Amino acid sequence: MFSKILIANRGEIAVRVIRTCRRMGIKTVAVYSEADKNALHVKMADEAYCIGPARPDLSYLNVQNILSVAKAAGAEAIHPGYGFLSENPAFADVVEKCGFVFIGPDSKAIERMGQKSVARDLMDKAGVPVMPGSQNNLESSAEALKTAENIGFPVLVKATAGGGGKGMRLVEKKEDFIKLFEMAQAEAETSFGDNRVYVEKYMINPRHIEIQIIADKFGKVVALGERECSIQRRHQKLLEESPSVAISPELRKKMSEAAILAAKAVDYYSAGTIEFLLDEAGNFFFMEMNTRLQVEHPVTELISGYDLVELQLRVAAGEHLPDMDEIIQPKGWAIECRINAEDPFNSFVPSPGNIEQYFVPGGPWVRVDSACYPGYKITPNYDSMIAKLIVWANTREEAIDRMSAALLEFEISGVETTIPFQYYVMSHPEFRSGKFSTAFVDKNMKAFLNDYTEK
Amino acid sequence: MEINSIKKLYRVVAENGYSEFELKIGKNNKLKFVLDNAIEKSDKHTDDNKNQNEMNSKVLPTDKNTNFEVFSDKVGVYVAPDKTINVGDKIKKEDNFGFVKGISFKDPIKFPKNGIIKEVCVSDGEIVDYGKLLCILQIGD
Question: Is the separation of the CB atoms in A159 and A196 below 8 Å?
Fold first, then answer.
């Protein structure tokens, strides 16, 4: 096992990794930008070094400075967290070439799964169900239109290098296709420096279900259950739960087997997530694979009993996965709310500022993953996450009640937070019944605003 | 854009040390805001037009002979020069103050001004991060 690792990230995920390292007796090296000099991960790590000014490209994306610290501090491995360099194949490659262990998958797996249309094609060949779509990237709008007509409208035009909803356009009618196709290409170029796009069938009101996998370097792949992530706004998740009400044991087995097949198709090792879209008839289709630890990994930890960061560290150190079933069955129910510094009454506009009061909820099976504290300044330089609030209970209903109580107990002042909206979701009959889709937020936003205005 | 959103935007811009910003309205119109009494940004380092060998410096007008604090904009291990630099030494602009060794580089450090060494704040083999104080020079009379 490693004696010292560097965490190439910030915020709550850096704190998360440090916590497991402390438990395992692994020394930690934090890196930070000038804007993060008072950050919690800096205070918690055994060593911390400033790597640049606030701008991400000069600090958290500054590969040279990160690796220089790793070498100077004697780190043996680098954990990339999520975001930043975590899915950058060139970073994974240069980390290994410089003599460190990358705590994640092989750079080739990252590269193959990072190009959406390539990943789609790979999965199709491996026998994983994929959405009907173009076989390759499409360059001309005429060629793309023909493909769209063959698939049948509505379709999505998606950026090959994309994510987070960028470079994506929904086309409902043939007459709108060319204009929207060209807009998607332009946005893909601006956002990712790569204007390649492909076309995929658009599923109306699907559920977003993802399967967590962990794999070792000896070919063993384990599926740790699904996460329901349909409560999203503009493709950004607001809350997640595990398991999903829409998944029967039989469907869980099928989707888990598909996820394991997907991981094996790219010789995957470490933690990863395969995202699917699920229709009302129970048909599921591969959407993409995230080759990193995800924000919502805690819900899986609570229903499986496994520390995913620990498993990542062990796999990276060359250990076999422990004795685990190939498909883990969930125990109980977990829900996570992402508490962001955003104003839900004003289109979720970011609300950076100084946190004044910060009183976290507690009690049985209430977990808070956060890097905030009273007096901490949330800057506009990075994401607006304040905390992840996660609860576990024996049943879904109990988990919802526990989350509702915890949200009420969570006191944060100085910035706006998403808590009012998440509390609204917990009490909404559609959410409580489990009969919802990715259309939930758009459908209920107006009612939420009216509800609070009346109060 | 609502007035409250503009106020929030104003506050964020001011807190980050900028003095003006522009809002694009519609296709062709722009609205420029110039902030009164923008908070001075205490950023020791600007990365524009910086010679990679030039150290950053900060003037501390605390006494008649002005002091310069010099900081590193490199990350790595400090390697002291062959000729040891001591407190009291007179140095010239562009004189060698050793170098910073990173993962794939070895950048020499040059003094930005003539002066006298008031304090050496880094030792051979020490890890140097961004913003690390390297030395204090006394300049002026």
Answer: yes
Compute the distance between CA of residue A407 and CA of residue A426 in angstroms, rounded to an integer. Answer: 10
Q: pLDDT tens-digit profile of A96-147?
A: 999 999 999 999 999 999 888 889 889 999 999 998 888 677 878 898 999 9
A241/A225 Cα distance (integer angstroms): 11
Q: How many CB atoms lie within 10 A of CB A152?
A: 10
- Give me A384's structure tokens: 């607006």
pLDDT at B49: 35
Of A59, A64, A379, the CB nearest to B102: A64
Cβ–Cβ contact A50 with B under 8 A: yes
pTM over 0.90: no
Distance CA A264, CA B140 (A): 68
Of B5, B16, B47, the CB nearest to A58: B47
Nearest CA to A202 out of A289, A281, A285 is that of A285
State which amino acid sits at residue A27.
K
Token output for B58: 């900060």
Q: Measured between beta carbons, which residues in chain A are less than 8 angstroms from residue B77?
A: 72
The whole-angstrom distance between A121's CA and the closest CA on chain B is 37
